[in-house]
């Protein structure tokens, strides 16, 4: 069973994101979403800077997001056709709940930018864990919209970047496992060099 919440280890061994286009209602209530975001904020943060923040896109704001994406699409892809337009429209309306995770580094600061960006990624991952712990499914999506200057201006302040669109809901169908890396390919033992 994927996202097995019978124990913390069971969950970590079976965690699986959902596809936003397949998510259905219900999503988290306002109180549940507040609890999810509080857990997301409990993340490694060298310097206690909180170099991230979250922007909730309410249900009644989804069409405005769709319109923003449709304005940004030709800037991203001047040859975008009807299928691209439909996909951008669909993206804005996926899943019952949408939170945009923002990397918001404190600059200048003695804590390196890279560490602050890693903390933003950890906060986004904690958000996914909290979503699943509350019995929902989440999906962390970037795509062209996360890098669009027009979309970025709509969500971000100077020096910020979109870390991801975090879609939250209930699985519309059973989740399927995906291939995972072979540990032999990603783990090695360090061997010190001798001069």
Chart the SSEs and their pairings.
Blueprint: H1 8-14, E1 23-24, H2 30-40, E2 52-57, H3 62-76, H4 82-93, E3 97-103, H5 113-133, E4 137-141, H6 144-147, H7 149-155, E5 161-171, H8 183-186
Antiparallel strand pairs: 1-5, 2-3, 3-5, 4-5
Helix pairs in contact: 2-5, 3-4, 3-7
Question: What does this entry look like structurally?
Answer:
The protein is of the alpha+beta class and 195 residues long. Helix content is 42%, strand content 16%. The protein has eight helices and five strands; from the N terminus they run H-E-H-E-H-H-E-H-E-H-H-E-H. Helix 3 runs antiparallel to helix 7. The longest helix is centred in the middle third of the chain and has 21 residues, at 113-133. 28% of the residues are buried.
Q: Tell me the CATH superfamily.
A: NADH Oxidase
CATH topology: NADH Oxidase
> Could you tell me the number of beta strands?
5
User: Which architecture name does CATH use?
Assistant: 3-Layer(aba) Sandwich
Structural class: alpha+beta
What characterizes the major β-sheet?
5 strands, antiparallel
> H/E series, N to C?
HEHEHHEHEHHEH
Distance between the ends: 51 Å
Count of individual domains: 1
CATH class: Alpha Beta
User: Total helix count?
Assistant: 8
Strand content: 15-25%
List the uncertain runs.
none
User: What value does the Rg take, in angstroms?
Assistant: 18 Å
Fraction of helical residues: 40-55%
- What is the overall silhouette? globular
């Amino acid at each position: 069973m994927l996202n097995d919440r019978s124990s913390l280890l069971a969950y970590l061994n079976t965690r699986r994101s959902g596809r936003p286009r397949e998510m259905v209602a219900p999503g988290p209530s306002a109180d549940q979403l507040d609890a999810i975001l509080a857990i997301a904020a409990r993340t490694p943060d060298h310097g206690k800077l909180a170099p991230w923040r979250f922007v909730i896109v309410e249900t009644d704001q989804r069409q405005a997001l769709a319109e923003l994406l449709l304005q940004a699409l030709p800037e991203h892809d001047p040859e975008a056709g009807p299928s691209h337009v439909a996909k951008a429209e669909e993206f804005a309306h996926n899943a019952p709940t949408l939170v945009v995770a923002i990397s918001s580094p404190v600059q200048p600061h003695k804590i390196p930018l890279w560490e602050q960006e890693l903390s933003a990624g950890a906060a986004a991952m904690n958000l996914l864990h909290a979503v699943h712990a509350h019995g929902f499914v989440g999906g962390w999506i970037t795509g062209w919209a996360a890098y669009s200057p027009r979309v970025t201006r709509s969500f971000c302040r100077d020096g910020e970047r979109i870390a991801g669109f975090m879609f939250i809901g209930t699985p519309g169908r059973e989740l399927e496992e995906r291939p995972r890396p072979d540990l032999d390919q990603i783990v090695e033992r360090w061997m010190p060099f001798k001069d």
